[in-house]
Amino acid sequence: MRIGFIGVGTMGEPMAASLLKAGHSVAVLAHRNRAPVERLLAQGASETTAAAALAAQVELLFTCLPNDAAVEQVLTGPEGVLAGAERPTGQPSLVIVDCSTIAPATSQRLAEQARARGAELLDAPISGGQAGAIAGTLAVMVGGSPAAYQRALPALQAVGRSITHVGPNGAALAVKLGNNLVVAAELVAIAEALALAKASGVDTAVAQRIMAASTARSYILNERVPGTMLTGNLAPAFRLELLRKDLGLALEHGMALGVPMFATAEVHQLYTQAQGLGKGALDSTAIVQLYEEALGQSLATAADADDADQPDA
Amino acid sequence: MRIGFIGVGTMGEPMAASLLKAGHSVAVLAHRNRAPVERLLAQGASETTAAAALAAQVELLFTCLPNDAAVEQVLTGPEGVLAGAERPTGQPSLVIVDCSTIAPATSQRLAEQARARGAELLDAPISGGQAGAIAGTLAVMVGGSPAAYQRALPALQAVGRSITHVGPNGAALAVKLGNNLVVAAELVAIAEALALAKASGVDTAVAQRIMAASTARSYILNERVPGTMLTGNLAPAFRLELLRKDLGLALEHGMALGVPMFATAEVHQLYTQAQGLGKGALDSTAIVQLYEEALGQSLATAADADDADQPDA
To answer: Which of A16, A48, B148, B307 is most buried, judging by how many CB atoms fall within 10 Å of its CB?
Structure first.
């Protein structure tokens, strides 16, 4: 299939490489950051300098961009994708596959604008990180018309292992935001549980080990907390400012739909506070610092955590 | 070992049975509810009519009671455990193993009162449910002196599979409350994520399936939500009013120690609201009804959830 790709960053570059590997013809949009473009050209991609011209020559167009404004501009700008989206009668319409995490409402509005030009837009947020993108094992949730989904499916199967059609436009973004609000609430609740344990004279590694074997167990508690909150190593795997952005999008979406968002609102406020205190570029687990600063002590495990406190039986 | 047991209810009866099976001599306190007492007598237990007399004849005494007031009364009442706790010089002191989930501060105060009579008290909250108690596979967290812990260990190994000495008096209760506050925050956040999905036109079973394979995965989301929130079957496995009680204990404990409890406070308010609306005897997952009532629709999965929305790849 002739496929265009806009946004060959951390996630986009390995996804475009997977499409090439699967035998698709891939054209990428030119970009000031030459390195990823040059690497893809070496793997057989072609390059085009305007989004409208790129859209005119492909059947399927991926966008993989950081935020609402970037997606809006690349689609609706004067030389943007939609300016090259119209097709002569009888020719199949352009399908735009937007992998960015943006507001469901923005995606729905852009889908309307695409339809006005005879094109279709799918929201297709991805989960699995850069490692998943490189391995071609991403989970992709897709919102939009079943017909557009079927046309995009062969390409999606080249970048991901689990592809799910979730519902109409914006539906996949709603699920992605729901996933991330649950993650954020877990991080806050775990920080409170560890702070309560520490203030009660319990080593946080002991508390984590017990909870990780009990009903509080989760991916976040069992796999993310030990290497972050318990060590004090808060180098970013997923930046705090990105999780805060997603919480804001979830909150706005819930407000628009009349969904009460008690936990989401509270957790968004805490992440906003943490970002205001300069922690935006740290890992999202750095929310624990709000509690550490209030307690005046670290919640990283004590040096002697591995001695006598192992389970005896 | 000569062991006493007070509170042979849902959890206590199978625990006392495990102690008998392991060859310990078990004396139970008489109780108006004859059935569990008679069953234990048939397995070789003896019966005593006053807590003080029971305490006088054993080395180790388990209490397994519903709340702070019940534990306080059975220990410090006129014919209570502490009235029979003193030992002649040279004889080993009485060790009280309290498996109830109560306030850490109450447990610490009772431990002081026990010490004043020459006895020791351990807080030993349990995790694993009635099935774990019957199978003898409970997880037991223990707070209190290392010496008392060592004396109780052989008996604890007869009732549980994972026994952990967590720290000083009240420490084990702090970890248990931390575990349960994380569980409650997850239930609230999951209800918000499912409500957001539903309001966006996504079947909640599809949303659950995607999140259960992504970073929001947890025991609660993957193993508790499908049979409860997604079916509308809210028959109690763990009653909402008990989780609300634990949230209140966690909040009070955090307040006393100067620990910020943003999520715990919010979630406690939501559980208080749900209990006020008459949901206390339902399962703790019934918190989802607050969201269903606000949306005016059920979040149980649609009848047609199993058709075309399975992952395609």
So the answer is: A16
